[in-house]
Predict the 3D structure of the following.
Amino acid sequence: MVAVRREVRALEALDAGADVGARLQAAGDAFLEVERYVNLNVTAVRKLLKKHDKVLPERPCAAFYTARMHDMRWVRNDYSDVVVRLSRLYAARAPAAAPADGPRGVVDERSFVRATTKYWVRSDDLSAVKLAISRHLPVLVSGGRVTEGESKDSQLVNSVYLDSPSLELYHGRLAKLPGAVALRLRWYGTGEPEEVFVERKTHRDAWTGDASVKERFRVLPGDVPRLLRAEYEPPADLPAAERRLAREVQRLVSTKRLVPTVRSQCHRTAFQLAHTNAVRASIDTNLCLINEVQREDDDHAPEQGRWYRDAARSIPSSDLTRFPFAVLELKLALAEADDLPAWLRPVLACVETNQCGGCTRQFFTKSFLGDDAAVLARSSGEEPASPCSRAGVAPMAWRTDEHAVKF
């Protein structure tokens, strides 16, 4: 990996007009080769240790050596800065595109109706997918700063979903009923939230000519308990549309007795050109669901006025569900006559991906709330084979952030 970083530094030092396409391709291939080598050896060592403990149960050593292995630099270090820097090198040498209407980098989300497709990606193929996409869409980095060995290509995203005791909102969204609503509290980054986005997603049937809508407004974390009690008064300087949305959300919370029910947490890598959002991609890794239903009969009852679990306290395994695949989401703002961009098809064909239609959400909620929580709708794709055999040491590109929730 040292050689890969040395080559990336050399490429960054060259003039933007230099023809370095072959060297960029070679650097990306070398990065993937090193990762495959590391993952193969980690898997081999784990299997050897497991076999040893099975044959000599009186002298177990797997736990000791596994902990030592996880502490080694080539397993512990984060190499996601290589993906970010390679994507910027590709973007700097891409043909110039037509300028956007308005300032560069400003994207009007309200002017697009998106078609969204999701895929499950095996962890072994994750870095290959990231690099393949980054050749055409640069990685969006929060803050825009890339530091060797420190920068991450992803951002921690937490979303607390509100629902009634009978899961009325969930069932409505699952059945895609006209006007079905999803309501969530979302914040970004590690640690305690500094600002919270209250988001309402409303489903509309396409045949009616109306588009599904996502609306949101910001609140301070300290205002969330008041909002959940329908006692929040929107600030006077908030735009009129957002003040109206805040009142409608509180009315919905009050009439349907909505409470925090489940939280999704993931590390999200976003890809998008600065001048257009016609094609966007995101990859969610370390995806898990956390039960947020408040209980007063155990040691993990939330503190008074707290609307999500304290990240400093461990979570019982019964309240946590991990998803062992990454989720690739493609958002296309294209006219009906337009086809997929030419570069997308080989990206999806180069590795094993599995298209899914809402099945990730169904999988999680069913695993959390039991067989009676929902009747799973048929997916648009077959579910991958059982991933249990792939559990364990994740590849370098799929890491658990130390500031994420403790398991």
